[in-house]
Design goal:
The complex is a heterodimer of chains A (357) and B (288). With 357 residues, chain A is mainly α. Chain A is 70% helix and 2% strand. At the A-B interface, helix 5, helix 6, helix 12 and helix 15 of A face helix 4, helix 10 and helix 12 of B.
Chain lengths: 357, 288
């Protein structure tokens, strides 16, 4: 067992609680940087996707896990980022290094546009409004073909830095990993600022939060805006990574798969975002791998992946609502406090009165 | 042309109204926002198709079997998937209903295949001339059934014991429980009613649209309908659904492509900007 003595308030919000944690993260950093040495091209492209999805999941987790709002249209914000970057670099010849932040900022502006009306109200208006945004953006992509290429999609080139082009999978992987690293550090730091604390307060009880002087609508909109920014950045990276984007990359099901990511990874944890991204990237691989071993009736089905999404969501929400990260915490707790782990240690508080609306 | 579009919009609006109605009833009584309502509708339509076309069950019996099956289906979903989660955050509930929707859609694809079926559900499509306008008899059928169903539900919620206890539960769960109302049974029943209403919507929808594993997406448009009418208001859901149906139908004729599919959502955003409480909504204040 390990005890920490807290002597200042800084101990509560420091990034690494134990010095050993820092060592483990440095080790993880080395593994991540050395990954291209041992992985083939296919493995690297999967890892790059994990990085891109992790950025979306980080943003979505800020909104859902830390602020308690639900977005069913993150694919739309992802699309805004992807198309902004693709159109700026392709049609207008803008450098990727300007298009990347532009993609994030435009997604954030769309976020404000949707968030402001929906978040003035209590309840699930954001979920419904973002769902609408998703369908509207899908139609805009299809019908505004002079700009977006319509159903034919858009070809996108890889970014260039000076004379160096990020054309190999390894180099693009390093680009994504470094952006993911920056975004994670920003998120970690944001969460320990007063703004981040306000988000958590809103999630836990919006009545209590507003009594503490938090402007609910403003903070919820800020959270949605930051979340949209993350989705936009990830969208831009996605476009440049895939070389090609079309409307089928940004459907309602993609929005759902983003939510699957944070539920499976762990709602309200930064680690969970990465776990979820790994899960969502490997799941299709795993399914196509198991198809051969399943009985013919099930293995041949087209909808197997969607069915798995649904099933996984239900099972996680029912049996492990804290996701993979929660499971990891429990295992860690078990060994740290060896004989003292009880089943109820992590029991969640349930509220049986009428919810706040 | 204009009046024909109005009538076909009204018919479509009735479908939206029914889906929105089912989901508002569930929302009012159990506080669960059911994103699977459209997919439950799809299952209802497929069950009717299976009994009527594949098993050649007589018409009335087939519809009855469908409705009974769907009532049980709704109860099972509530009992197995949602009741264990009572007291969990709202987020978890919503995610579960979304997951149920996806699951139903893909399982329906596995059972009934991915092709689009033509299914008239026993309704004959013949032109009816009324005041100089040529109307489809199916559209009139849809409106008629909707009016009867709403009347029946009105009677049920105001005159029967079960209906009144559901009404009481949706006003205050704790008080209803203390008055001796079996809140768990109320939850079961309201899901059964929600599923029945959805199934009827599905049976009415298949002749004018299509029968396909993906038709549940139409059910998502019940959300703009409910918000437009005032979230949680039963008359609001009906009026909202009809307004959405009519404007969608008109947008399909008078506006360029792509607007028909997004009309409902554009209306939703306009409502949120101008009158977020909807037509019949009242803004509730929370007591701490």
């Amino acid at each position: 067992m390990r005890f920490i003595k807290r002597t200042t308030y800084m101990h509560d919000i420091q990034l690494f609680r134990y010095r050993s944690t820092l060592v483990w993260y440095l080790l993880l950093g080395v593994v991540v940087l050395a990954a291209p040495l041992s992985m083939g091209a296919y493995g690297m492209s999967l890892l790059t996707l994990v990085g891109i999805y992790a950025i979306v999941a980080l943003g979505l987790n800020l909104l859902t896990g830390f602020t308690g709002q639900i977005s069913l249209g993150h694919a739309a914000l992802f699309a805004v980022g992807a198309y902004t970057s693709a159109i700026l670099t392709g049609t207008h010849g803008v450098s990727f290094w300007l298009a990347l932040p532009a993609a994030g900022i435009l997604a954030a502006i769309v976020g404000i546009f949707i968030g402001l009306p929906a978040l003035r109200l209590k309840g699930l208006y954001l979920a419904i409004a973002t769902m609408g945004l998703g369908f509207i953006v899908e139609e805009i992509i299809v019908h505004w073909s002079s700009m977006t290429g319509g159903v034919n999609g858009l070809a996108v080139s890889r970014p260039v830095l000076g004379a160096f082009e990020f054309s190999s999978d390894d180099s693009f992987y390093y680009l994504v990993v470094s952006i993911l690293f920056i975004m994670t550090v920003i998120m970690k730091n944001l969460l320990r600022t007063p703004t981040g604390r306000a988000f958590v307060a809103i999630r836990d009880s919006d009545v209590a939060a507003s009594s503490m002087g938090i402007n609910l609508a403003a903070y919820k909109t800020i959270a949605f805006c930051i979340s949209a920014f993350y989705a936009g950045i990830a969208g831009s990276l996605f476009a440049h990574f895939m070389y090609f984007i079309g409307p089928e990359n940004f459907t309602f099901l993609i929005s759902i798969s983003f939510l699957v990511m944070i539920v499976v990874g762990g709602v309200g944890s930064v680690h969970g975002a990465v776990f979820g991204a790994i899960f969502i990237t490997l799941l299709p691989e795993f399914i196509s791998f198991t198809r051969g071993y399943l009985p013919e009736v099930i293995g041949k089905q087209v909808g197997l992946q969607e069915a798995t999404y649904g099933l996984v969501l239900i099972l996680f929400l029912r049996f492990e609502p804290m996701g993979l990260y929660g499971r990891w915490l429990k295992i860690k707790f078990y060994f740290e406090h060896f004989p003292f782990y009880k089943k109820d240690t992590f029991k969640r508080e349930r509220k049986f009165y009428r919810t706040e609306h | 042309m204009f009046w024909q579009m109005i009538v076909s919009g009204l018919a479509m609006g009735c479908i939206y109204a029914l889906i929105a109605l089912g989901f508002v009833l569930i929302y009012k009584a159990t506080e669960i926002v059911n994103f699977a309502q459209g997919d439950i509708m799809m299952v209802g339509a497929f069950v009717a198709y299976t009994t009527l076309i594949l098993f050649h069950v007589p018409y009335i019996l087939a519809i009855l079997m469908t409705l009974v099956f769907m009532a049980l289906f709704g109860m099972v979903i509530e009992r197995v998937l949602l009741r264990p989660l009572i007291g969990e955050p709202v987020f978890a509930m919503i995610m579960v209903t979304l997951a149920v929707g996806i699951l139903l859609r893909s399982v329906a694809g596995m059972i009934w295949g991915y092709e689009t079926y033509r299914f008239s559900a026993g309704m004959v499509d013949q032109p009816v001339r009324f005041a100089g306008v040529s109307l489809s008899s199916i559209h009139l059928w849809i409106m008629g059934v909707t009016v009867i169903l709403i009347g029946a539900l009105y009677f049920f919620f105001n005159r029967t014991k079960m209906g009144i206890s559901i009404e009481a539960t949706s006003q205050n769960q704790l008080a209803a429980f203390l008055m001796g109302i079996g809140v768990k049974r109320v939850f079961s029943n309201i899901w059964a009613i929600g599923a029945i209403v959805a199934a009827i919507a599905g049976i009415l929808l298949s002749p004018i649209q299509f029968l396909n594993y993906n038709m549940g997406y139409i059910g998502l448009k019940a959300f703009p309908a409910a918000v437009l009418g005032g979230f949680g208001s039963v008359p609001g859901a009906i009026v909202g659904g009809i307004i959405i149906g009519v404007s969608e139908s008109l947008a399909g004729v008078y506006l360029p492509g792509g607007f028909k599919e997004t009309t409902a959502w554009i209306i939703l955003i306009i409502v949120l900007l101008i009158r977020p409480e909807g037509i019949f909504g009242i803004q509730q204040q929370k007591r701490v």
